[in-house]
Amino acid sequence: MSHLNRLPAFALMMRPLLRAFLRPKPTRGATCVSATLPAGQAARLTLRRGETLLVRQGRLWLTREGDPVDHVLWPGTGHVASVPQEVVIEAFGPQACNYERHRLRGA
Prior knowledge:
CATH class: Mainly Beta
Number of domains: 1
Oligomer: single chain
CATH architecture: Sandwich
Number of helices: 1
CATH topology: Jelly Rolls
């Protein structure tokens, strides 16, 4: 039973190390812009090569020029532009869509 009494103290000692390890690290050379698109609204974006759209909340309908397939993105999913491209996005569903736009500096 004595080894069970030591577990909480060990866990308390490890907490600062775990926090430092799990804390998100800033990415050098990248920018992130968060945006909200109200339900039913659309926007046209010009994406650079390597730029990423990442959905955080809601659903996003994405249409790319020259692509016959439309894409629906859910929270936690995204789209990476392999070439510079024009896209049209729309908040798909009854709620607004929160998304992030990540781009590498100089890209």
